[in-house]
Fold this protein.
Amino acid sequence: MSESLAAEFAAFCAAHPTRRAIVGGHRWEYIDAGAGGPPLILLPGGFGVPATSFRYIPALAEGRRVVAVGYPPELDIMDGLCDGLAALMDALGLGPAWLLGGSASGFVAQAFVRRHPGRVFGMILAQSGAPRPARAHLSRACAGLLNALPMALTFGLLRLSIAADLRGGTEARQFWRGHFAEVLAQQSRAALVGRFRLAADFDANDQLVAHHRHGAGRVVIIESAGDGLIGPGERAALRARYPAAKVYTLAGGHNDSVERPEAQIALIRAILRPLR
């Protein structure tokens, strides 16, 4: 790139300010870009800040409306979050949309398409997985721990986790370590706990996404061959859940969607182009 990621991010934020809307008594944050349809709803990864998708939004908003959202922290049950997202779509005048859910937000996409099938034109699941009931216990334990620990200790542990996951001296890793540290500092206890409760709800309630039949021809799965977080077994379980889905496998690992997103962005653009 001719400019640093920090400069690119600053320019993006200046051109695409985060907006806020009170819908159903909950405050949603979102970035709204582009025009055309069917629109694309970009569900957040990481800590759920819309601007984290700054490499994706402009590229995907060429000829298409893209709305990147952040989750209200108090919506920590999948049904409530999905209903709130449907209400936000109504408030923004969005008809049936593509959903793009990466990593844990792929869980939200799957729950949403089960609960509101008529609102979904198509679904892209990137570096995501299927429900794992055994994992719900771990997510609940993490939520309970985060609810009990002093916030300073919680932030310290999460900062160490970020640093370990993004260790190294490349310009990209330095930027993302700083970015996620900043985003983390803005998180409330409720927001952090809510993320783990959502994951537990998804894993514990397999019926949220079981027997999905809507738009089977418009389900796309993007995998990373070296994904250490979503392993081969979980990737296979996701493919089995959506047997009619088109599956693409990219080189690299889980973090490539953030650190080196060019290949994934190009693939998503190609997926969306013929089905507009």
The first strand starts at residue 19 and ends at 23. The chain has one domain: 5-131+204-275.
